[in-house]
Amino acid sequence: MKKFILTLVLLASTSAHARETASSNTTPKFRDCPQFFAGATSPRINKSFQVAPRALCYQSFAILYSGVSKTPVFVAERLNRAQLEDAKDEKRTNRFFADARLRKTERAELDDYKGSGFDRGHMAPAGDMPSARAMAQSFSLANVVPQAPKNNQKAWSGIEQATRKYVMRAKGDVYVISGPVYEGKPKTIGRNRIWVPRYLYKLVYDPATGRAWAHWIENTDQARASKPISYEELVRKTNIEFLPKSKVIG
Predict the structure, then answer these.
(1) Catalytically active residues, by annotation
(2) Is the pTM of this model over 0.70?
């Protein structure tokens, strides 16, 4: 099996910030928004990294962000029926923006996507957002990846819709984590060299049942959604332990 390389592993930087964080090998803590993770425990990444990713909190989701790939490592949500009912009335804004909390050297800009041939693909979908503020925040470029257009608009959209349908039937909160996976030397777009993922995943965990599964799809226009993979397979593919081991029924 080919080795999948995540956003936080890879290119070394010569900046002072990189030198300061090069020896770190723990995932940043989401102290201001632990509610988006099962058991208030953020994922454990089983790799060291050369440039520390950033933990970013928003009203309805949390992002572990890589300033190397200039995309999220993962985006976490806690969904339930009430939130999705609220989201039905929210008007989609489509106002993408570069997140001012990120330094210019570590973020994507609007121009990077123009003429690239790729969509700005949401990880935390606009369709999940229960308020105007949350909707606006979902258009941060920190929450998107370069995504093949038909993939974003059809196959991935179908995965998002299937996830919402499940949440509407669930007995309580459902935790969802989405992200990109890179393989080899990634293709890039734009002046800021935004990495293009080879694959995308969406993990769904229902605490009421203890069950977890993941949608895994290649980032191409030809890709089609297939049968979900197991939680264990997702962990092997990504080297990320998304959930506390005691939470998932084997």
Answers:
(1) 122
(2) yes
